[in-house]
Structures are given as C-alpha cells and as structure tokens.
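FAQ

Q: What does a record look like?
A: Structure on top, sequence underneath. For example:
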C-alpha cells in the first residue's frame, strides 16, 4: 500500500452528498411550506417547541443540536416573524423561555405536511426495507461522529 494522498474529489464524498441532499430537501420544504412563512432553519426549533413549549435557549441547543449562536439568531428572527414570544422565567429571572405564539402553533399542520411530503418524495423510489436501512445507516454515522460534536448538544436529535 502506498502513502499517496487521496485523489478523491469533494463531490464524491459522503459528506458532500449528504450536504447536497440537505440543501435540496430544504429548498423543497421551502416550496411546500412557503405560505406558512417558515424558513427551513426554523423547523427544528418549531418541532422542539411543538413538543415542549416554553424551552430556554440552552434546552433548545441540547434538543436540536444546533450551535448556540445560530439558535440565538434564529430565535430573534422567529420572534420578529411572530412565531414565538420570549418571556423571563418566573422562577429564575436569569432565564428566558421561548413560547409559541398563536401563529407558531397555527403553522404546525402545514409545516408537518410539507415535511412529510418532502420525505416521501426523497424516498419515493426506495423500498421500505431500503428506507429502514438508510435511516439505520445514518443513525450509525451520526453516532460515529458524536464524540467530535461534543458540547454541541445531547446525543438525541429532535425530529418532527
């Protein structure tokens, strides 16, 4: 075996393909849910709040595994867009809780329907067995990289 550097092209890597798939899915979601006025980066936070309303920023970071600075920016935009309200925690004034507004709750059916439609489209030509294997493989890959993501959040991804 030689020690020559790999000549693999970026577009041939798993990471490139996963990133491309994520971008294509985000574009499709935007098309399916455009009337809701929700951006793809807001979906994970909405999903977490639909499951448990009134979370702190730290709790959201742990649940959705997105960096704190990104979440802070997204939460500000969500508040500006009327999806959430921020309120001080009544038992600990140092904490701020994020609550869904009526609008934040009202977009749930449209957003969830759009997510389902895009997921269905993405796996349309795969068998149930292939989809199950794909999900298991992705979960394994995520677990393989978990130690590298230490400090980003909990080992459990928030899903819709």
């Amino acid at each position: 075996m030689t020690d020559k550097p790999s000549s693999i092209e970026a577009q041939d890597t798993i990471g490139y393909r996963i990133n491309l798939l994520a971008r294509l899915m985000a574009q499709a979601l935007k098309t399916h849910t455009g009337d809701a006025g929700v951006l793809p980066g807001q979906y994970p936070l909405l999903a977490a709040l639909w499951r448990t309303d009134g979370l702190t920023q730290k709790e959201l970071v742990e649940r959705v595994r997105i960096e704190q600075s990104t979440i802070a920016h997204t939460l500000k935009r969500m508040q500006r867009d009327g999806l959430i309200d921020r309120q001080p925690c009544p038992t600990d004034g140092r904490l701020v809780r994020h609550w869904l507004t009526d609008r934040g709750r009202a977009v749930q059916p449209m957003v969830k329907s759009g997510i389902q439609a895009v997921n269905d489209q993405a796996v349309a030509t795969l068998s149930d067995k292939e989809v199950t294997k794909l999900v298991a493989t992705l979960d394994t890959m995520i677990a393989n990289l978990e130690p590298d993501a230490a400090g980003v959040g909990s080992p459990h991804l928030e899903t819709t």
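Q: Is there anything notable about this one?
A: The helical segments are 14-33, 43-51, 57-64, 68-80, 102-106, 108-122, 128-145.
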